[in-house]
Amino acid sequence: MLNEIQGLPAGFLDAAAEDMKRLLQTPSLIHLEGKNPQPLFISTLLHGNEDSGLKALQIILKKFENKTLPRALSIFIGNVSAAEKNMRKLDAQPDYNRVWPGTDSDACEETRLMQRVVDVMKKRKPFASIDLHNNTGRNPHYGCVNRMSAQYLQLARLFSHTVVYFSTPKGVQSEAFSVICPAVTLECGKVGEKDGVSHAARYIETVMQLETLPDHVPGDIDLLHTVGRVTINTALDFDFDGSGDLALDGSIELYNFRQVKENTRFATLMTNTTNAFDVWDDEGNNVYDEYFKLDGQHVVLKKTMMPSMFTKNTDIIRQDCLCYLMEHIDQ
User: Fold this and answer.
1) Which of 45, 84, 189, 231 could bond to 78 as cystine, CB 3.0-4.6 Å?
2) Which regions in the chain score pLDDT beneath 70?
3) What is the pTM of this model?
4) Residue 80 to residue 57: CA distance in whole angstroms
5) Radius of gyration of the chain (CA)
6) Using an 8 Å Cβ cutoff, are 154 and 214 in contact?
7) Phi/psi at 174 (5° precision)
8) pLDDT at residue 316, as a whole number
9) Tell me, what's the pLDDT at 136?
10) CB-hemisphere CA count at 13 Å for 317?
11) Cα separation of 175 and 172, whole Å?
12) The pLDDT value given to residue 266
């Protein structure tokens, strides 16, 4: 059930992500008043172990603790059960950023929860939506959009000149809110990095102060489009040390947001299986043969590409994906 409350609960400003379950009990939508009554919607802890968004919010709310906020806020605190265990999600749960309206997942408690959040916020007519996340691998801070409209791109550019347009996976928060208002997903670096927290806090304060978003496309953005989501063949055991069916290259995190040349090795097959990866395009087609090939036992790129979100965290790879493949968009 959605816990919808007016005002911050006692202890919120100093609570860690692990304390949110005790403090809120369930996923919660918190409404705060401001000088401008049209709210800014902010979601965090959709992945329970990604706490930079919560910490950034706490910085801003402490700053305005005895003052009126420049703009009303509606804050959604997501997977409090996973946050209590410092996990992305619990084993029995779906991914909280794959179950929003538009998802291709089966109906469940979580899809109904996210539909409720969207329904509530539609009535409040938010100014903009910000979904705050962390990466597990080495990635720059960047913004993501699901629509190529000027105000959406402006919202992302306020955070970073690197902007990624994507339409898969389905069921993400930013896509659901894109039908209501300008919406962005922010990737704030690794958990525990202070610059990601401070960067997100400055961004939130900036957006709170805005009256409008410019309606022209920003000229100084590096605009990218995800063309493939790479997952590992579920029949294979994988690792980085060569003891499984598939040995991932230990340097893959260094490839994030870099042009990686054709024939670069991503992995080595330790078995006779030919299909190490699956590569899913926006229509759900497996386009592995367009991007990868075998060179002996090595899985190599067929053409120069820019990956993102490589990580050496094998749990995250299993729960989500190995990486995304991107191409530049000519503005």
Assistant:
1) 45
2) 331
3) 0.94
4) 16
5) 20
6) yes
7) -65, -35
8) 92
9) 87
10) 23
11) 6
12) 96
pLDDT value at position 122?
98
Q: Residue 40: which of 160, 155, 161, 191 has the closest Cα?
A: 155
For every residue of 87-101, DSSP letters joined together read: -SS-TTSPPTTS-ST
- Per-residue DSSP letters for 139-172? ---EEEESS--HHHHHHHHTT-SEEEE---SSS-
Q: Which two tokens stand for residue 282?
A: 């926006």
How far apart are alpha carbons 183 and 165 in whole angstroms? 12
CATH number of 3-220: 3.40.630.10
How far apart are alpha carbons 321 and 300 in whole angstroms? 17
190: three-class secondary structure by DSSP: strand
Instruction: Enter the DSSP assignment of 306.
Output: E
Mapping DSSP to helix (H, G, I), strand (E, B) and coil, where does residue 247 land?
strand
Q: Give residue 243's pLDDT.
A: 85
Cα 326 from Cα 178, distance rounded (Å): 21
Q: Tokens 């029949």 label which residue?
A: 235
**Separation between Cα atoms, residue 163 and residue 225, nearest integer Å:** 9
Angle between helices 52-63 and 194-209 (to 10 degrees): 50
Length of the chain: 331
State how far Cα 78 lies from the chain centre.
Answer: 13
Which pLDDT does position 182 carry in this prediction?
Answer: 98
- In contact, 159 and 141? CB cutoff 8 Å: yes
